[in-house]
Design brief:
Structural class of chain A: mainly beta
Helix content of chain A: under 10%
Strand content of chain A: over 45%
CATH architecture of one domain in chain A: Sandwich
Low-confidence stretches of chain A: none
Distance between the termini of chain B: 19 Å
Shape of chain B: elongated
Order of helices and strands of chain B: EEEEEE
Strand order of the largest sheet of chain B: 1-3-6
Low-confidence stretches of chain B: none
Distance between the termini of chain A: 57 Å
Largest interface: A-B, 37 and 33 residues
Strand order of the largest sheet of chain A: 7-6-10-11
Structural class of chain B: mainly beta
Mean pLDDT of chain B: 94
Number of helices of chain A: 0
Strand content of chain B: over 45%
Mean pLDDT of chain A: 88
Shape of chain A: rod-shaped
Oligomer: heterodimer
CATH topology of one domain in chain A: Immunoglobulin-like
Chain lengths: 145, 61
């Protein structure tokens, strides 16, 4: 497995030392394999009003960022947010972002602080290891007056 | 000798390397023993390869 300490380009060498039976001659060769390491990076933010109260309609803004380096191939982002009924897959180009605005009526069962989470699961085409963001959970303070 | 792997990868991926050793000697050359070493892949083995033959090693890492 390519270690976290690997640097770009990631090169390693194999050596061969050959001898001929009955002769003192030796022959050496080596070969280097160089792998272009790409660096995928993603982020997500979720914002909403700092304060609100039960029954209010609030607007949440989710922004998903593709902060990968230029060597990273196309990435697909699966964005899920149970409370906002979001479950969508999008391709975001390197350096790009995807914004989702969604409204919600704060339910009568809401408790203080009222928080909810969006999760992002991203994959790089042709590679198995996924990337996931830490959950983003904005807090909306409920004003109960 | 050649060593090949994926053109692109990223930290955390398991990659597979293929090492191929060629004995390109002419027909008059006696048997040759090849000692192949690759520190990163923990390879240290000796093999006899016939004239005009090849030997390949494939290792995931």
């Amino acid at each position: 497995m390519i270690p976290g300490t690997a640097t770009e380009p990631f090169s390693n060498t194999v050596n061969v030392h050959a001898t001929v039976a009955g002769f003192p001659n030796t022959y050496d060769d080596s070969a280097i394999c160089t792998i272009n390491l790409f660096v995928p990076a993603i982020d997500v933010t979720k914002t909403g009003p700092a304060k609100s109260k039960i029954g209010d309609t609030v607007t949440y803004t989710i922004t998903v960022y593709n902060n990968s380096d230029a060597d990273t191939t196309a990435m697909t982002f699966n964005i899920t947010d149970t409370m906002l009924s979001i479950n969508e897959s999008v391709v975001i180009a390197n350096g790009g972002n995807h914004v989702i605005n969604k409204t919600l009526v704060i339910p009568g069962t809401a408790t203080e602080p009222f928080s909810n989470t969006v999760n992002v699961h991203a994959t790089v085409a042709g590679f198995r290891t996924p990337m996931m963001t830490p959950p983003s959970a904005p807090l909306t303070c409920l004003d109960r007056r | 000798m050649t060593k090949t792997g994926p053109a692109k990868s990223k930290i955390g991926d398991t990659v597979t390397y293929t090492i191929t050793v060629y004995n390109n000697s002419d027909a008059d050359t006696p048997a040759m023993t090849f000692n192949i070493t690759d520190t990163m892949l923990s390879i240290n083995e000796s093999v006899v390869i016939a004239m005009a033959a090849t030997m390949s090693l494939t290792r995931p890492w």
